[in-house]
Amino acid sequence: MDVREEIREKTKDFPGEVHPVPGGGIMLSSFDDIVNWARSNSLWPLTFATSCCGIEMMSVASSKYDFSRFGFEVARATPRQADVIIIAGTIVNKMAPVLKRLYDQMADPKYVIAMGACAISGGPFFYNTYSVVKGADHIIPVDVYIPGCPPRPEALLHALIALQEKIKSGLTRDQIRGEKPQP
Amino acid sequence: MTPEIFKEYIAQVLPTATFDESGEWLNVLIAPADWKPFAQTLRQSEHNFNYLFCLTCIDWKTHLTMVYHLSSTGHRQTIVVKANLDPANPEIDTVSDIWRTAEFHEREVYDLFGVKFRGHPDLRRLILTDDFVGYPLRKDFEDPVNMIKL
Q1: Mean pLDDT of residues grouped by 10 in chain A (183 residues)?
Q2: Given CB 3.0 to 4.6 Å as the disulfide criterion, which of A36, A76, B66, B76 pairs with A81?
Q3: Is B146 within 8 Å of A130 when comparing Cβ atoms?
Q4: In this complex, which of A93, A94, A130 lies closest to B147 when CB atoms are compared?
């Protein structure tokens, strides 16, 4: 069983036991697990779309796919109130410093999703130009990559759920990649 | 109005112009030196080409071609004017005083192709950063850091 499967097994259910008693209930859990669970289910994305993937992201926000079901309801227009930045679209050299500044202005803990071929690697058709950054991970660290051009809304939902699993596991990026021992 | 009427009219105004009717619109090829007075004539004539909806440049490796798409909103007519430029020293008169939209279009062409527009009120970069070297839309543009040779 690799790390990801372990995480999936661990984060399947609510982290704790609820014992109903008259007049209320008692919940047994570890505090860290509850905090991670709360964090993962209230991720606020930053409104950041540089090209066509942005349209796909809007469609995920719309009633048909509705990412508010997973707690992504509140798309913020300022980095100071956002937890996750979804890089939806091409990043060009002129945009790179802006993206870096937005990322730096986000409050910790912060997460990054690279959506679509452009954000992963510079795109399927204009990677060989003077202007395009060949992957957003040249600028900021990325947690979840979504392949596709454009990715379907389901793919973005899947990536959001994958990010939630990572957060619920309470491990760092390096630990999930197996570069550092787990606690 | 048909292309023939334009042809007659333009042959009258500018005898050196050559025509190409293979496309959707009438193409008029002129010498760059004739462009400014010719543009003024087109704007002020009874045809009244009052709308320049596209101004761009093409690099043919041997020469650069300026392309102007002109429309007459009153008569619903469109013609295309082309002028070949020398790639070593591309220069042509500005038409930003005739069609206001040319101001930004010409700045863009200046930025990406290096064409100098004589008499432009504010010829500076529009898209690229100030320290950018070279003209990226030209065929001979090379950027070994970001581009691979195919």
Answers
A1: 74 80 82 86 90 92 90 89 92 92 91 92 85 90 91 92 86 72 65
A2: A76
A3: yes
A4: A130
Phi, psi at A117, each rounded to 5°: -60, -35
Interface contact flag, A130 B129, Cβ < 8 Å: no
DSSP assigned state of A69: G
Instruction: Tokens for A154, please give them.
Output: 């389901």
Query: Quick one: tokens of A71?
Result: 């707690």
Residues in A closer than 8 angstroms to B147, CB to CB, are 128-130
Residues of B in contact with A128 (CB under 8 A): 146-148, 150
The residue among B78, B81, B53, B79 whose CA lies nearest residue B66 is B81
Q: Looking at beta carbons, which residues of chain B come within 8 Å of A129?
A: 136, 146-147
Q: What is the DSSP string of B97-131?
A: TTSTTHHHHHHHHHHHH--EEET-TT---SSS-TT
pLDDT, mean over chain B: 89
- Asked whether the CA dihedral B116, B121, B127, B128 is positive or negative, the reply is positive
Q: What is the pLDDT of residue A179?
A: 66
Contact in structure between B85 and B64 (CB atoms under 8 Å): yes
